[in-house]
Design brief:
Elements: E1 7-10, E2 13-16, E3 19-23, E4 26-32, E5 44-45, E6 48-49, E7 51-56, E8 61-66, E9 85-89, E10 94-103, E11 107-112, E12 126-129, E13 132-141, E14 146-151, H1 152-158
Length: 160
């Protein structure tokens, strides 16, 4: 089953699906765009090739179209609570100490413990508070132990 936190592979690198949404009756896996070169790229999820059909450059997000018969878990989104703890969760690891330092219209700013930072292959991982996805990990700065995530506000605006 494909869901938020599932891995995919593209050009020999692992990435993470941040959300699965239904947009105008079509299923999409959503992840960060910096892992792809363009529309038409073919990531492998659960051993099957899929196609990147849209790149939303303004938000650093791509949509990977999924066939209608694909077993998925649609992502439930929440609203980020500032200064509260969250978790970065994917199918290989969980970072339990992640604090939402600031929440803007399109980005979340996150604080991590310096000894437990996201790795490059955690890119796209869902950020979760109260069992709901509040964002999708985009980048981190190791020297400040901070990270940025695409906000659920952007991901929710994609849904229909």
């Amino acid at each position: 089953m494909i869901k938020a936190g599932s891995s995919f592979f593209h050009n020999g690198k692992r990435g993470i699906i941040g959300a699965v949404i239904l947009l105008k009756g079509v299923l999409y896996a959503v992840t960060v765009s910096h892992l792809f070169q363009g529309e038409g790229d073919r990531p492998i999820i659960d051993g099957k090739k899929f196609v990147v059909t849209r790149i939303l450059k303004d938000h650093g997000v791509v949509l990977i179209e999924l066939p209608p018969d694909t077993p998925v878990e649609i992502t439930e989104f929440g609203i980020p609570a500032e200064l509260e703890l969250a978790e970065l969760i994917n199918d290989t690891r969980t970072i339990r100490y992640c604090r939402v330092a600031n929440s803007g219209a399109s980005l979340l700013f996150l604080g991590f413990q310096c000894h437990d930072m996201p790795a490059p292959e955690d890119s796209g991982s869902p950020i979760v508070q109260g069992g709901k996805v509040i964002g999708m990990m985009s980048s981190e700065t190791l020297d400040t132990c901070m990270g940025m995530a695409v906000s659920s506000k952007i991901l929710c605006s994609l849904e229909v």
